[in-house]
Amino acid sequence: MKGIVLAGGSGTRLYPITYAGNKHLMPLYNKPMIYYSLSILMLSKIKDILIITTPNDISQYKKLLGNGAHYGINIQYKEQSEPKGLADAFIIGEDFIGEDTVCLILGDNMLYGSGLTGFLIDAKEEISKNGGSIVFGQYVKDPERYGVIKFDEQGEIEEIIEKPKNAPSNYAVIGLYYYDNKVIDIAKTIKPSNRGELEITDVNNEYLKNKKLSVKLLPRGTAWFDAGTHDSFLEASNFISAVEKRMGLMVGCLEEIAYHNGWITDKELLNLAEPLMKTEYGKYLEKLVNEK
């Protein structure tokens, strides 16, 4: 399976802090926002990753992440010249995906919770084995911001509605999606919405129409943040800070995930820690080896 992080857009909901930079490079507590979305792909044991961003920002991502080799992964980059919708990621990434399955995550999404790794790997394996698509639902207080799940009288999924004024439920589809290879052709056939964008909701409804969409509700206790507004940005940062200070464990630490996946060695982890030793981050990486 291939992985795509969509990290483009203009970040208008976070103005003025995004006037001069891409929001996915902004810090959530002690790491760039994109670390958290990348970590989800790495927890899914996905090693080939494409980052899609704007022409102005691509050099900054390359400076931050390089080709990913130091994490034991392969990172490539492509430009999205203008916001054309989430589904445009599959058209941009067609050559990268090839004949493989694919997982798309939005660069401003953060997930944390017990058992999350197994949940993600199960989704990946289910798509690889059976095809179709898997999306994830979460109960939210402000469903009008998201694609919302409409259930029929039997509790089955009837439709997903993009940013409805009158939401049919409080279950939002989060920005994490697993698809078989047919998603490329589906993305090419959908028409732009009234916003002029290729909506991921239209892709999901096409899978639903063909009885190939599975919606899994996130396990109770799983934290999900869409850090796209000032409030959610602050809430995500505060959550990460609280977890790390109380538990002594890092959230979204790419080096740690690579190390536990067996993608980098003790020596390679210590080499990554060395320039960071004036920070708690570097000391944490060193501690991982010492406590092995």
From TrEMBL:
It holds the Pfam family NTP_transferase. Residues 2-241 form the Nucleotidyl transferase domain. Its cofactor is Mg(2+). The keyword Chloroplast does not apply. It catalyses: dTTP + alpha-D-glucose 1-phosphate + H(+) = dTDP-alpha-D-glucose + diphosphate. InterPro entries: G1P_thy_trans_s, NTP_transferase_dom, Nucleotide-diphossugar_trans. Keywords: Magnesium, Metal-binding, Nucleotidyltransferase, Transferase. Its EC number is 2.7.7.24. GO terms for molecular function: glucose-1-phosphate thymidylyltransferase activity; metal ion binding. Belongs to the glucose-1-phosphate thymidylyltransferase family. This is glucose-1-phosphate thymidylyltransferase.
